[in-house]
Fold this sequence. Notes:
This protein has helices at residues 3-35, 38-41, 45-53, and strands spanning 56-57, 62-63, 68-69, 77-79, 84-85, 90-91, 94-96, 112-114, 117-119, 124-125, 130-131, 136-137, 142-143, 148-149, 157-160, 165-169, 175-178, 183-186. The protein is α/β, with parallel strands linked by helices. Strands 2-5-10-13-15-16 form a 6-stranded mixed beta sheet, with no helix packed on it. A hairpin with a 4-residue loop joins strand 17 (175-178) and strand 18 (183-186). The model has no long low-confidence stretch (mean pLDDT 84).
Amino acid sequence: MKPQVLIRKAFNFIPFLVHHLPFVFKWWLLNIARRSPWCHMFLTLPNLCWKICGVKMGKNVRIGQDVYLDVNYARYITIEDDVWIASHAAVFAHRRIMDDYHVGDRYKNCEQKPRPVLIKKGACVGIGSLVTPGVTIGEGSVIGAGAVVVKDIPDWCLAAGSPCKVMRELPKKGYRYNKETKQNEPISE
């Protein structure tokens, strides 16, 4: 290789490195937040890593082991106060635009479009659940294990399934859910 080519490649490597360094740093933080044994001793460490990546996060948020939040589109994810995301869940904030994808095209050339995800105050995302882009999970709602959330979930309800659908509304204080009538009824004393 000629010295001029080697020098040109060395100078081209610097902008390449500067451009890719933030991505490498975010992926390093992602791996700390997902799998580090330090997370068992310092429970707020995953939250700190995700906040650095760009996730808007409230107070008293608990994120389980091996949870994936869309690291390259983290700024589109908002998690309000007192949310629990159980282990092995995934939250995505982008999707590919498939309008111009045809036979013989390359899938990875399709444009990626970010869509915001909002998990409201007091919600719980069950173990192994998948939250797709553009979804809002309502206040106090509980998402069952293994659910695939593809549309908005209203406040104070129990939702499960693939695709996720509302199973029932959660009862107010002084009421309980009756499995026979499938309704919330007042508690008789």
